[in-house]
Predict the 3D structure of the following.
Amino acid sequence: MRLRRDADRIRMEARRMGRWLPGCWVALAWALGLACRGAAGPEWPPVGREQRPWAYNWWLGSAVDRGNLARELRRYAEGGLGGIHVIPIYGAKGAEARYLPYLSEAWVEMLRFAVEEGERLGMGVDMTTGTGWCFGGPDIRPELGNLGAGVVRTNMAGEAGYTLEVRQTRRKVKRAAPGGEGLMLNPFSAESMLAYLAGFDRGFPAAAARGLRAMYHDSYEYFHGGKGFDAGWAPGVPAAFESRRGYRLEDHLRELGGRGDPDVATRVLADYRETLSDLMIEEVFPQWVRWSAARGLRTRNQAHGSPGNLLDLYALADIPETEMFGRGERDPLASGFDARFAEGDRDPLISKFASSAAHVAGRRLVAAETGTWLAEHFCETLEEMKCLVDLLFVSGVNHVIYHGCCYSPDDAAWPGWLFYASTQMNPRNPIWHDAPALNAYIGRCQAILQSGEPDNDILLYWPIHDLWHTPAEAAGVLDPIECGVHRREWFDGQAISATARRLWERGWCFDYVSDRQLGSAGVSGGEIRVPGGVYRAIVVPPTRHMPVDTL
């Protein structure tokens, strides 16, 4: 009788908390198991700082002080947050006298105070390796910044020829904080990354990292869609191309410019795109991962938006991170889970690229930038946030990071300092009164999800070479293909999309897998073994181009 009453109580509690959603089933199944096992069964996994939701913490102008920072952190902890992610950005009008230059002695001291105070309150702290986004700043000289390239047709001595023209894009860090302004680094240049990290070291000695959990790199926004001479080049590209592809790129400028045999032109363009991916995965971003590890720090990386292989880029980090906005056609009074499935930026099949990379590589945490644009400022609801979080849970995410909460001093008039992204998960938003209930729910679900192991049956092969063989949009333009979470032609327009949706809708559990990841797999007893676990089959969508080693 007692066990039956316990199970009935748990069912009633689940109904009280909300709809029957997939995220609820995870926690409910565990709870019912405990009730049926009795007192001798396993206890609920502990809910600590890493199980509770975290939040991006925007420091406007880095205008923070000890008193206000201590009060803000206490409020975050009381509201149920497990940690913050410090991102210095542009300033607040009228508060210029309070600004702290980025990486100045005073700034580093405020970060150290935040870490110590967070530790006292049971909260963790991450930070961006920079300000705003993407990586860059005053240490990036023009020759180390973003470069774009295109093939230009020439006519010399009456004969047509082709030449490669390279231009500086001068793309600057977005929303940079005072002291962090400057050019973005070149994501295809190891020299550029090393110069950036060396400059960072000058203001941020290794000792300053003590107590921090992780360094963070935001989504890839070094270029936008490869239009014109936007980005996609580095001085080392020709040498890297020849060593990896086995022929000289300079010998095929005619085809690279979209002329001549269409098959040859597409092959050269595909090889160029693969070379850029290789540079990011093998030479550039491993520098940042190693730099962080040498300081005892983990890494969080948003690989989406890049022109590289997302699965391999996500897997470089200790904590792969996706994002799901949720903005789209919206009725504030009818924001149900089922009605908005895959609406706007809510497609779990995109979020699964980050969780798949984590599962295959054996990473314990899968993070998500969560709720950035649910509605306009102060119009989002906790119900909408819960629906979004549940969808992330079934996508494989187990580490929610709200986007976000903005530091604000108590003397700022309501609603205080705000970041332009709409979801204000902070103590000045009326929803904060009830946010602890949602945060407790997320903590319980994530305690379950983080204590388990992924157990999907299928590896779904991503034929990225088919994507790389997509013809250029304009002749003569070297256009890397952006693999983003907002524009998703790279996925929806490929065969893998239909295969993934068919598996998903029929209840088959799968993780995407890349060529590199398959290259490290082993087969034993009819099972496919990868660093993160064991799978029973590899499913290949309709595929035209596959590396011989993979085949």
About this structure: The first helix runs from residue 2 to 17.
